[in-house]
Design brief:
nine-stranded parallel sheet, 42% helix, 225 residues, alpha/beta, globular, 9 strands, TIM Barrel
């Protein structure tokens, strides 16, 4: 199937499962050549997710004639924060106040509007996964929410891989309830970034507002350059 056909299929499934609720599809283009991004854009896709800064900057330069929205979705090192702050509209994986402060400072110094951001939550407790533990989210959210250069939008998670739809939905339900608890504290969150190619159906049914779709749209990734 073509990228356009895959995109139509994914959109139809998301629309059906969301039952009228808006859900944004972010096309995970890491490891994909710029030509595939252009093909997806021609099919109507505007938001793209990248995890490697240098790879992303190369693609952004190559595709500068297109009006695209760039989401940084990978782990973020301190020495990459300025590049991300200046070249992305969204960051999905903040789990430390130091990273948030550096992103905020770079946006303010550049005179750019606040960067849309989600806090990454480690719900499964896996040591290999980035993310703040659920019990520490409220403290971090309050601190990030006070930064001038950050607009805290919501929460993101990468649960453990599982083919079990019940476990998938349970993890996504935990993130939804965590967002609701933060809203009850007065934090104006409106975003749940959860769900990828293998589990986005479960995520949408549990309230996801952004799904990050890679292989289901583009096929298998090329190796990281």
């Amino acid at each position: 199937m073509t990228i356009a056909q895959n995109l139509d299929r994914i959109r139809d499934q998301v629309t059906r499962l969301a039952q009228g609720r808006p859900v944004q599809i972010v096309a995970v283009s890491k490891g994909q050549p710029p030509e595939k991004i252009r093909e997806a854009c021609q099919a109507g896709q505007k938001a793209f997710g990248e995890s490697y800064v240098q790879e992303a900057l190369h693609k952004q330069s190559f595709l500068s004639d297109l009006a695209l929205e760039w989401h940084f979705i990978g782990p973020l090192q301190s020495n990459k924060t300025t590049s991300v702050a200046l070249h992305f509209e969204w960051v999905h994986g903040i789990d430390r106040i130091k990273i948030a402060e550096r992103l905020s400072n770079a946006r303010v110094e550049a005179g750019l509007p606040p960067l849309n951001a989600c806090l990454q939550v480690n719900l499964s407790g896996e040591s290999s996964k980035s993310g703040v533990p659920a019990g520490e989210v409220a403290h971090l959210a309050r601190a990030v929410g006070e930064l001038r250069g950050i607009r805290l939008r919501g929460l993101m998670t990468l649960p453990e891989p599982t083919p079990d739809p019940d476990l998938q939905r349970r993890r996504f339900s935990e993130l939804r309830m965590l967002k609701e608890s933060l809203q009850a504290l007065g934090l104006p969150l409106d975003t749940l970034s959860m769900g990828m190619s293998e589990d986005f159906a479960s995520a949408v049914m549990e309230g996801s507002t952004i799904v990050r779709i890679g292989t289901a749209l583009f096929g298998e990734r090329l190796r990281k350059p």
